User: What shape does this take?
Amino acid sequence: MPTKRRKEPGRGTLIRGADGALYFVPDGEDWAFRLPNDYTAEARTMLDQLDFVAKKDRLPSFHGSGLVHRKGGFHDIEVDLNRLAALIRRKQHSK
Assistant: This one.
């Protein structure tokens, strides 16, 4: 019998939108929510420096666990920069 994978906090897909904002789609959900710019400035700067920006019909995206953490209230969100950097390195090596 297959075992059900335990839901990990912050597991999902982080997407860089055409507007430059970051969106998060939690695994198992059909909706995305826009992460507040105040809490994602460092992550957006990192993505800008590495040229992970929307181009024509392509939106940069990263999937994994531990990408996004809620620190308190609904809008108090943190992007784990170390986890994001690891996923960026993996994506760069697979090109």
